[in-house]
Amino acid sequence: MTPRMTITGVVLGAPDARELAAFYERLLGWPRKADEPDWVQLANPDGGTGLSFQTEEGYVRPVWPHGPGDQQMMVHLDIRVDDLAEASAHATACGAEPAAFQPQADVRVHLDPAGHPFCLWVEP
């Protein structure tokens, strides 16, 4: 029998946890649950999985899409939206950078200030 396990959060490394958390606060509108110099947690107001950030010394920004020898992304976030153009404009206004490579028509890939890719997508 598999023991009960619940994923309670996803943690993104960053050169500055508070700076990256502030970006996702603006993007998602989620409140801070914990705020320490090198660790910040955002609470999902719907009660789902939260999002946390930790400062990592020697952080190396990922490259997406990566090439030979580039630091690869280790994780990315998929964020469902109602209106792709509106959500993409909001993400950019919050400080995201649209990725140069966009692999699908119903998805917009952006890079957060620490270089983590995230995908905004609409259901077909």
From TrEMBL:
Identification of the protein by name: Glyoxalase
Pfam families hit by this protein: Glyoxalase_6
CDD domains: VOC (cd06587)
Alphabetical list of InterPro entries matching this protein: Glyas_Bleomycin-R_OHBP_Dase, Glyoxalase_6, VOC_core
Span of domain VOC: 6-124
Coiled-coil spans in chain: none
UniProt cross-references to PANTHER family, sorted A to Z: CONSERVED PROTEIN, HYPOTHETICAL FUSION PROTEIN
